[in-house]
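Q: I have three molecules that I believe assemble together. Could you output structure tokens for the complex as a whole instead of separate predictions?
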Amino acid sequence: MRIRTLLILITVTAVAAGCASQSSDPQTSAKAAQMMKASFKERGQAKLDRLDQDETQRLCSLYAGNALPKDVATRIEAANLSSIKYPSDGKLVGDWKAGEKIAQEGRGKQFSDDPTGPVGANCYACHQLAPQEVSYGTIGPSLYLFGKTRGYTDETRKYAWGKVFNPEAYAACSNMPRFGHNGILTEAQIRDVVALLMDPASPVNH
Amino acid sequence: MADPMKVRASVVGDSTEVKVLMSHEMETGQRKDAQGKVIPAWFIQNVTATYNGKTVLSAQWGPAVAKNPFLAFKFKGGAKGEKVQITWTDNRGDKRTDEATIA
Amino acid sequence: MMQNRRRLAACMGGVALAAFVSLAVGQGSTVDEIAKYRAALQDGNPAELWEARGEDLWKKPRGPKQVAFARCDLGLGAGVVKGAYARMPRYFADAGRVMDLEARLLYCMTTQQGISDADAHKNLFGNGSERKSDMEALVAYVTSESRGTKMDVSLDDPRVKEMYALGEKMFYFRGGPHDFACATCHGEDAKRIRLQDLPNLTSKEGAQKAYTTWPAYRVSQGELRTFQWRLYDCFRQQRFPELVYGSDASIALTTFLARNANGAAYDAPAIKR
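A: Yes, here they are, computed for all three components at once.
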């Protein structure tokens, strides 16, 4: 009995210290969304509709800072999995050199960006990839040796494609953008990013 | 007209330590604006510090010095209540002099 | 293979910059070297130039009505600057609104000094000598007068409390083409974007360290930037539309972050890369 009480206490403390939990209160959420609409103005390519959340964004915002209920996570993943579009010609792997450029490119979709200019994936902002690039972020896991450790199989290539296209399909409320689903990258660009990860000749795998 | 400098001077042992912040663009002449036009060079060329009418520091600067430069130096002598004067001149002929009382 | 990699990295560093070599040695030393760089910047922070100009602006009669900020109440009485920033945002009955410092200064300019709304909103972000920002100078001065004061944002007023709750929601609000929220980058300890350390604003320590070091002189821009700019530019990178300066959303988020910094000694204007 004593032991059980102690365990419960430890669990409670861990939760309290682990995360600053926000109140999952839909009314306040709705009010905040309304306030934001009145506090932003469109500029360049960034229109106000960028504040309209889809179901994934809404649910992930609502539960952020708290544990995501399992059924909600399953729902988000299923919905996003069904949205993944694979290339019609079946070609998943492009040019890793072009992929490296896309991984380095931080521009695109900001109101300060030229709407006709380049749009990158900025992978290095969050991930380690090719070891030659020492300026990488740590928000996401290291992807160094991605293909080599997972194996250069059809299954892994397909997973890499899906993960870049829509990471919410594999990990609900992931921090990673849905590059294909949200139209950030083109099909050709995703192919090149997959090559950076999966081509045995890519520096990511050396 | 150029903004005032921020000058601080204090006695440290038998010397006076002077710290100066200058407000200046220090444009290198290497940068281009949004239209692709070269932004002309504009930088401080000469800095002098005088104490009791005597020059205690004379420096020639170039475009490699950062925007809003910070300069710190020491000279022998100086006493509380006396004044240190700093003057800079830039490549456009603009000039600014400020002084501080030694603390 | 490991050795090859190291050699390659060292070569790159040698060509580019001496500092690059130390980056290639290991991530631990990268952080150390950046810390040294920051320490070297501490002496002689150009923010002082903004503080001096701001003090001058604060004391001078301004606008069509030729009224100085001596009549402006930042929450501690008309003209009282000392310690005022550490207690903002707060509710101002005369304006009927929760305000941060920047919103309050705009209010004093338009209501007391007779400056038009359009003129008050000119040059909120400075750009070198061609566009000096009075707002950035004023904020530099006012905030410098809270240096060393403990952050003490009160939620006793229900209107401030509500802004805090809304600000918290905003912090976790995902939107735009990239699904980014503030929490995407600022929700965990010890994360970096490229080589830039990211404060975890959901932890007490992280919020304290971040909030108490704004405004800051940004070496890369040669400008002093206020907290309104910090939020504006975060949202730009979040791919959101443009955050309206002094808007309710900007004040709500500021309330959330300022309150989370309570208890820490305020220490700005600071200097950042």
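A: One point stands out. Chain B is about 0% helix and 50% strand.
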